[in-house]
Amino acid sequence: MLAAWPTTVGHVLSVHDAQGTRLEDIPLPGLGTVQALWTTGDTAYFEYSSFITPPTRYAVRDARQLPRRTGRPTVRFP
Fold it and tell me: Going edge to edge, which strands form the sheet with 33-40?
């Protein structure tokens, strides 16, 4: 089970067992916010942003590995 929860400086993304015991944290790209969290099969996806990072999608299969970026929005300037 995955959970994203706020702290004083940003969000934490963590893995929990069926009883809710926190097992380990998934490293985020920095201090920021997790806006969305979903799973497909054995892969978890989340959208992360911070003051210097636009909303970006990431995927992770193993909590001991760094998440990989799977999507980034296109920012258009006038």
Answer: 33-40, 43-49, 56-60, 68-71
